[in-house]
Amino acid sequence: MDVTPQTDNEQATLWNGVAGRAWVELQESLDQIFKPFEDLLVEAVSLGPGGRVLDVGCGAGGTTLAVARELGAKGRCIGIDISDTMIAAARSRAKREGTTATFICGNAQAHTFEPASFDIIISRFGVMFFEDSIRAFANLRHAGAENAELRFVAWRSAAENPFMTTAERAAAPLLPNLPARQTDAPGQFAFANGDRIHNILNESGWADIDIRPIDITCTLPEKELIPYLTRLGPVGRILRETDDRTRTHVIQRVRAAFDPYVHGAEVRFTGACWMVRAQARSVSAPPESVG
Ligand SMILES: C[S@@+](CC[C@H](N)C(=O)[O-])C[C@H]1O[C@@H](n2cnc3c(N)ncnc32)[C@H](O)[C@@H]1O
Fold it and tell me: N or C terminus of the chain: which is more exposed, having fewer CB within 10 Å?
């Protein structure tokens, strides 16, 4: 997962650069780790209001392709992502699979979608990076049909997800330039606060908002742990620029810090997330009053 840069341009740069490349390189591992979340979204689509699906921040397309497989000829799934690198990977996977899924490279916050053209809008960890979340979710509301459903998973707080910050806590004494995470800034933990999610959705045209904590066991093979911790997140980014000696020390120290999660050949941790559901509010209805 990734960090909390300050501007949307910075997000686009990050995901078109080092973070996008790392996600593509580790795509198979990441799809395995996050498969339980993919399954929840595929299930939501299969029970959902219709077969026109948009996958926001689709990355290398794992969830988009799984949804397209589920829908078959009954529907279509389109993935949108701001990263050329990720979309190129998604398109080549789609070609290999011969799927009906298609992909758009664009900023979901501002992209001109055909109005009312989706029955369900989903995302697996792809909606926490907007510069202006209200504008982004209003844009997605506009893309949704009447009664369209929104379903996404997002991380709860860093404190509830210690696995995700193990590397930076262990490496901090050796890497003084490691950036600190910023509360509510675009990034992995931007939606840690459920009330904030509720306010954003209420202000952007969504109703019947339901935000539930889910705690999901995630796994990866132990042999994939070093690639994971040396390429992803703030530590992964800094390690690309550090000298060999520091790099070796950091890897030793960080790998040891992950020991509590290693069970023989498997790494296991709990992903503490929100499952968010909402329905498109009718255009004439006002937002829910707050307070
Ligand atoms: C944590 S990754 C998740 C990728 C994918 N959903 C998955 O689960 O494998 C976040 C994704 O959101 C994308 N993203 C960030 N800001 C975006 C924006 N404004 N519009 C569209 N995609 C965006 C990134 O490029 C990245 O692929």
Answer: C
CATH 3.40.50.150 is right for the domain spanning 8-280: yes
pLDDT in tens, the chain (291 residues): 443 444 457 889 999 998 999 999 999 999 999 999 999 999 999 988 889 999 999 999 999 999 999 999 889 999 999 999 999 999 999 999 999 999 999 999 999 999 999 999 999 999 999 999 999 999 999 999 999 999 999 999 999 999 999 999 999 999 888 888 888 899 999 999 999 999 999 999 999 999 999 999 999 999 999 999 999 988 998 888 889 999 999 999 999 999 999 999 999 999 999 999 999 998 778 788 765
Q: Where are the domains of the chain?
A: 8-280
Which parts of the chain are beta strand (E)?
52-56, 76-81, 102-105, 118-124, 144-155, 206-221, 262-263, 266-280
Q: How far is the CA of 189 from the centre of ligand 1 (A)?
A: 13
CA of 127 to the centre of ligand 1 (A): 7
Tell which atom from ligand 1 comes closest to the C-alpha of 131: 19
Q: Residue 107: CB within 6 Å of ligand 1?
A: yes
Q: What is the largest CA-CA distance in the chain?
A: 62
CA distance 151 to 50: 13
Locate 159 and state its tokens: 């404190």
- 271 Cβ inside 6 Å of ligand 1: no
Report CA-CA distances (Å) from 252 to 42, 172, 196, 222, 248. Answer: 38, 13, 38, 15, 6
Kindly state if the Cβ of 3 falls inside 6 Å of ligand 1.
Answer: no
Whether pTM > 0.70 for this model: the answer is yes
